[in-house]
Amino acid sequence: MSEKKAQLILEDQTYELPIIVGTENEKAIDIRNLRDETGYITLDSGYKNTGATISTITFLDGEEGILRYRGYPIEQLAEQSTFLEVAYLLIYGKLPTKDELSNFELRIKQNSLIHEDNKKFFDGFPQHAHPMGMLASSICSMSAFFPESLDPNRPPELVDHSIVRLLGKMPTFIAWTYKKRIGEPYVYPRYDLDYISNFLNMMFSTPMEEYHIDPVVVDALDKLMILHADHEQNCSTSTVRLVGSSQANLYAAISSGICALWGPLHGGANQEVIVMLERIKEDGGNIQKWIDKAKDKNDPFRLMGFGHRVYKNFDPRAKIIKAACDKVLSKLGIYDPVLDIAKKLEEVALNDPYFIERKLYPNVDFYSGIILRAIGIPVDKFTVMFAFGRLPGWIAQWKEMRENREPIGRPRQVYMGPTKRDFVPIAKREN
Ligand code: SDX
After folding, report:
1. Strand runs (DSSP E) across 65-215, as ranges?
2. Ligand 1 touching residue 359 (CB < 6 A)
3. How is the chain split into domains, by residue range?
4. Is position 99 annotated as part of the catalytic site?
């Protein structure tokens, strides 16, 4: 709490509202008692100016293009850490010791099998079912297979078991949705492989041939997952918190986050970026034509992977992924023409007044699909990969909300509908 107060003058009365200043000097007017004191609420559709919580997990500075998990810069974590180490940091609030990390990794591996009855779920889906719908259903079904997880108020060690179970089964569910899609047999997790290698093996091995695990691919995917791991109160994380605030179980809350992430304005953008780049390539690669379409208010086309609610400077994750694209593609000996198109789009857009005035820069989704495609991930699984990366962040945010015993989320509204009127029975209504 700051010593300073905000003054609000309403109908000739002056109210003083507390001011909260965060550890990174972000300032908020505390309106938690506003309606009781003044009878007024605030209105802020899209919550563009509204803080939903006080959190210690992730810090973003949109103007400066800064992203830190528990105070550690994303650039250092992407370069020096691993996805499961970052998951531990986000969920438990500190970097693990060597033993803590080994134990965490082992517990996750021990929980990577999914119940054989889950196969009946996959058998029931049509082959063309979108993997995000299959994943959301599969994760929610965990509450059926582990009914004890329905109580989010269980002792911490039991809640922790639900968390580890989720981290263990997520990659298996993702890989099995892929095998269902292509009609190949399911591949099981193995004890001799690390988290990312296990995932790649379950995705790409077949009874005919074992997948060759390339350290370049493992490293690229591990880095990509680190970059997606958390992003403070974005749409899907806010969904997880809101669902969790009703004391619905962890698996239901995460399943709702997967559904929110699915949207093309959010996590679904990574899939839409590749569709857009392919469309531009097929159209002859006329960059200016598509930039003009993105600027045209009468044209529904938007430059997918560009713009951000918070970042009004470069998304630091986009910078790291762009650099990794060149490195991964050259190491894998892959030339992907859409990477050149993406770079040209970025160059033209960042020199165009429309994008400059609106501070529209490439975001995390602009280049990520190029690496995913180089690894062999099909386009319609790109958003599933975003969910895979974001899982530790969702869990950490859900855990923080539960531990802080935050109240059930229930926003207010300004009613603009009809005022009181009497019901007219149908017999008396004019046709
Ligand atoms: C993610 O919140 C997070 O942290 C999300 C995320 C995470 O890690 O969780 O970072 C992941 O979701 C990244 C964003 C992925 N989505 C896209 O790439 C879709 C394309 N981007 C836009 O739809 C848009 O930029 C949003 C949705 C990302 C942000 O929208 P806002 O903050 O509501 O801004 P807005 O739509 O009000 O845009 C402001 C102006 C408008 O023009 P004017 O009305 O002022 O003339 O900028 C324009 C918009 O038309 N604009 C774009 C544009 N994005 C915004 N114009 C063309 N192309 C775009 N991509």
Report:
1. 66-69, 72-73
2. no
3. 5-51
4. no
